[in-house]
Amino acid sequence: MGWRIYLLLLLLATGSGTKAQDKAFDEAYDKIWKESAHKDLNASLADADSLYRSSVLPVSRMRCLMLIARLYQQSGDLDQSIEYALKIDKLAAEAGNYTWLARANGYLSGLYRINELYDKARSHSRKALAIIPKIKDPEQANSTKGLMLQELAYTAMAEENYREAISRLREAGQSIEKMQHNREVNTMCNEVMLGDNYRLLDRYDTAVIHYQRALTAGINLPSFYETGYAFRGMADSFLKQGDLQKAKEYLDKAERFADETKNLQLKDATHTLSKDYYARVKDQEGLAMAREKSNAVTDTLLNKRAHLLDKMYGQLEQNEITNKLRNDRKDVVIVVAFVLLVSAIVFFAWYKRKRRRELEQVKAVLERLSGNEVVPGPVEAATDFDETFDLQEKDTAGNQGSVEKRIMPPETERILLDRLAEFEKSGLFLENGFSLSSLATQLDSNTKYISYLVRKYKESDFNGYVNELRINFAIKMLRENPQWRQYKISALAAESGFSSHSQFAAVFKQQTGLPPSAFIRHLAEELG
């Protein structure tokens, strides 16, 4: 434990005046969160736990629990982070503290969203929004509202609704401006998020402005992980604009920050960008090093997330078993043999139909993958070549039409289609975090051309296209390699390029009509 933390805790323990204790607590809290958390996460967790044990007031204890939850989140231990957030929720409910009740639910919403458990995330978001109007203190209300609006912005970003996210963040900024405490930290977070959304809308100049504002807001703060996100965002913006010199300048800063921090999400984002940069400049040595770093972080994140999901699914299964036993005890008196017999007959008939239908679905999927792939038809001669990326044009009445404009010469289109076909055979799409810009780099083209080709010939957006390739790969391996059928779903997801068990399962069912476990079971029966 650092000597300054020790002295501050000693002051708290001596029972000095209330004001002196409050000041000591605030100093200890800021020392942990704004300084030591970036340098030594384990030591910060120990200090935060000591601060929690020395605190008496419910508000101080809840602040410490939130600090511990955030530190665990930085380390990638999201299950521990959720556990501590649930403790805050319980303590706030017992104390009747609406501010912390809203904060706890807003934070839980974010944690569940990160794990792609969107139903649980929305449930906690709704609960937090309902609580905020009950907060009487203006400072607390503005702070909580700002944080909740940022969480809603994160949800909109996850759904690729970047304009809605920007609207939420601007509203959050108005609440943050009214805050008296921690305004700089919250402003920095808000500006980084604004930069990310404008960058995702390809408005790179505006994105850079917001990243610079974030760095300015945090200029008097100690090393803070949002600084690394700002550097990473600026590097990506300059890379997308083709300014390789500035991209490398800010990428180096982001990499130094990522190497020093314990924040696994920042490490993952920065190392992924490094792969894009080194692929762009054709630096094989740098690319290999970036891949090694990225793979190490990705493996850690996948293991932690799989552990959390396994734990949560295990709890759900246990709850289902408990509920079933409870209902059985209630119903045993009224259940008669006739009802059981009829139910069994109905169930057996339903099960046979269901099993037959699922087997037919498996056969249809296998036949589709075994057949010849559709080869794009010949490209028509260019008659109105237009360099702008505009898939829609207006008719003479000013209404939006659906006539596609050609955005590249026919020869370029043929060459890129050939390269796209080679890409589909390469397996590069299995790389976790593979992006549209990565594909454009591999094909020695740009994102606008590639988006156009995917939309026109694959009848999908980029994410849907890559997900289909990954699911087809998984099915092929399940069909040809019996050992794959013994893998856990989380392992299949990782091998197929997906970042989570839940995402893989959702996309697999969407494309095949069956959950992975049911598909594998019927596939084993079909193949013998």
In short:
The chain has 528 residues and is mainly alpha-helical. The chain has helices at residues 3-13, 18-39, 41-54, 58-75, 78-95, 98-114, 118-131, 138-158, 162-177, 183-200, 204-217, 225-241, 244-260, 264-280, 284-331, 337-370, 410-426, 436-442, 447-457, 462-480, 489-495, 501-512, 516-527.
Topology diagram in text:
Elements: H1 3-13, H2 18-39, H3 41-54, H4 58-75, H5 78-95, H6 98-114, H7 118-131, H8 138-158, H9 162-177, H10 183-200, H11 204-217, H12 225-241, H13 244-260, H14 264-280, H15 284-331, H16 337-370, H17 410-426, H18 436-442, H19 447-457, H20 462-480, H21 489-495, H22 501-512, H23 516-527
Helix pairs in contact: 1-2, 1-3, 2-3, 2-4, 3-4, 4-5, 5-6, 6-7, 6-8, 8-9, 8-10, 9-10, 10-11, 10-12, 11-12, 12-13, 12-14, 13-14, 14-15, 14-18, 16-23, 18-19, 21-22
CATH architecture of the domain at 3-220: Alpha Horseshoe
* CATH class category of the domain at 3-220: Mainly Alpha
Percent helix range: over 70%
The counted number of beta strands is 0
Q: Cα-atom Rg, whole angstroms?
A: 27 Å
CATH superfamily of the domain at 3-220: Tetratricopeptide repeat domain
Largest sheet: none
Q: What is the CA–CA distance across the termini? A: 61 Å
> Structural class of the secondary elements?
mainly alpha
Q: In percent, how much strand structure appears in the residues?
A: under 5%
Element pattern in H and E = HHHHHHHHHHHHHHHHHHHHHHH
Unreliably modeled segments = 3-17, 372-403
Report mean pLDDT, rounded to a whole number. 77
Classify the fold: give the CATH topology of the domain at 3-220.
Serine Threonine Protein Phosphatase 5, Tetratricopeptide repeat
Global outline? globular
Number of helices: 23
InterPro entries: Homeodomain-like_sf, HTH_AraC, TPR-like_helical_dom_sf, TPR_rpt
Transmembrane segments: 332-351
Protein name: HTH araC/xylS-type domain-containing protein
Domain HTH araC/xylS-type: 418-522
